[in-house]
Amino acid sequence: MPKQKNINKPIKPNMADISQKQVMSKKSRQLSKNIDILSLYINNYNKRLTGREIARQISINHQTALNKLNQLVNSNILYYEKSGNSKYYSLIQNYKTRLFLFLTETISSFSALNNIELSILIPELIPCCESIILFGSFSSNTYDKKSDIDLIIIGKCDKNKINSIKERHTRSINIEYISWKGLESAIYNKNPLAKEILINHKLFGNIDKIVNIFWGYYFG
Question: Distance between CA atoms of 142 and 82, rounded to whole angstroms?
């Protein structure tokens, strides 16, 4: 008679799997902190910030901020310039930084979809157009019950479908339509609305193309 297996015998954990998960968790936390730092630059790619300013704005202690900043400097994402006793950190103009900005802009915009109205509206609109820029109070999270939703729709779009979507929503939705060339021209010519969206925006659709326009404005 074959010997029965002891089904109650405890299963030993696979230490290799545990170690890999711990490494992945650590990398995920590091990436999250780096994105927190890069998020401070998305309203001005030319911004210069000290370690203390960064620590204060993302609510971490100064030493932790310096450690993260050193990692970003070593990764060729940020560089610093000394002025007096302070180091001022800025974005390096390279492909790696631009890719990191794309990721940061995407995550920042994703957070806007925590708003129930936007979580319904934006997915409805995206199939009808190439890209959307959300600005105004809903982008800065300062809206109230009387606030409008302010959008810029870029590129080819189906205005009939968009108007139909607008009519289904009880909140007032203001939409500006613009071509890609029109957006680029407005930004380069420092149009008042363009200046506003550079400072305060959430991006949907072809985010990479919008980031490239912003990048070109700041860095040429």
Answer: 35
